[in-house]
Amino acid sequence: ADPDIFKSIVDGVVARQEEIDAAIMKRLAEGWKIERLDATSRAILRAAVYELIAEISLPSQIILDEYVSIAHAFFVGAGPKFINGLLDAVSRDIRAS
Questions:
Q1: CA-based radius of gyration for the chain
Q2: Quick check: pTM over 0.90?
Q3: How far apart, in whole angstroms, are the C-alpha atoms of residue 95 and residue 59?
């Protein structure tokens, strides 16, 4: 991993966390709060949503593929599918505007 890119993503998530969390919460099931997600899922989702917002030159599918691959490194079973589905919905919200 490129340390400069990683730092840029982390800094971007911190700076825009309220906006990022709102985009994620919009697509969570009714009654769910972002705090209900485990820390690893939250980190993956926040980083991906930041890139969807900030890296307009990167196609959504490339961003989703990268972060779903990261999810597969941490989870088996439904975890990566959940992240994929949520990111797909959020990307349509963000990139449609």
A1: 12
A2: yes
A3: 9
